[in-house]
Every structure is written in C-alpha cells, then in structure tokens.
Amino acid sequence: MQIIWNYPELDRLLKSRAGPVGRDLHRRGLKVATAAKRQVGVQTGALKASIEVTHGRNPTGQQVMVGSDLDYALMHHEGTRPHVIIARPEKLLRFTGRNGGVVYTNRVNHPGTRANKYLTDNMYLVLV
C-alpha cells in the first residue's frame, strides 16, 4: 500500500489558524486571557484592557501568546522589590499621603509590589 501525502491539506490541518489545531489553540488562548482579565488588578483598567491573544506561525507550527504590551505589565505579574522613584528634572511627583492630603516631592521610597501571576496562574485551564 502506498501513502500519498496531501501536503496543502496537511499544512491547513496542522499549521493554519483555520484548521482544527489552530482553532483549538486560539480557544485555549482566549480562555487564559479571559481568566487573566478577571484576576489582574484594576486601578485604571488599562492593563486589563490591554491583555490580548496573538496567534501566529513559527518554524515548528503555530503559537498563541497571551499578554500585554504595557511597560508595567511584567512588574505587575512578577512583582517588584522596594525601590526609590525619582522625579524627572524640573518635575515633581504628586500623590495622596497617608492623611489624605496631596504631597509633592522629587523622590519617594516605594515599598515594592507583590506579584500577581495573572497569566501563569491560569495556565492550568488549558493543560490537557
């Protein structure tokens, strides 16, 4: 018996976003993104709104990436250590103090941020 490979159909099946593998990967990515949006901290809503699913091809087939391109998304996910925040030259930092009053200063000691693993915590949802 001889096997005749239908390479275009095999490529659609395994490597196309419209094929069954691509649809399943995209569905799994959406599931992680939805759960991450529920878990992520919301101050302004910008981080929550920026979480997206990107589906593409790579040399071995397909890939789905879930995440945000905001510069502070990684700090929110991984947490930060205590650090000093210094204002830009000729500028001041403005925040609400402990007593509720507005404070202006050129430097502040930030206590750090506890990690919120909103992406990796939800990976279990898509593991087989």
List keywords for this structure.
about 130 residues; alpha+beta; two-stranded antiparallel sheet; 4 helices; about 25% strand
Strand content: 15-25%
Radius of gyration: 22 Å
The overall strand count is 6
Largest sheet: 2 strands, antiparallel
Q: Mean pLDDT, nearest integer?
A: 92
As a percent range, the share of helical residues equals 25-40%
Please give the count of helices. 4
Order of helices and strands: HHHEEHEEEE
Low-confidence stretches: none
Q: By helix and strand content, what is the structural category? A: alpha+beta
How are the strands ordered across the major sheet? 1-2
Shape: elongated
Distance between the termini: 35 Å
Oligomer: single chain
Tell me about this structure.
The protein has 128 residues and is of the alpha+beta class. It has a domain at 7-81 and 114-125. The protein is built from 4 helices and 6 strands; from the N terminus they run αααββαββββ. The chain is elongated, with a radius of gyration of 22 Å. The model has no long low-confidence stretch (mean pLDDT 92).
List the helices and strands and how they pair.
Layout: H1 7-15, H2 20-39, H3 46-50, E1 52-58, E2 61-67, H4 73-78, E3 83-86, E4 93-96, E5 102-105, E6 107-110
Concise summary:
The protein is an alpha+beta fold and 128 residues long. The protein is built from 4 helices and 6 strands. It has a domain at 7-81 and 114-125.
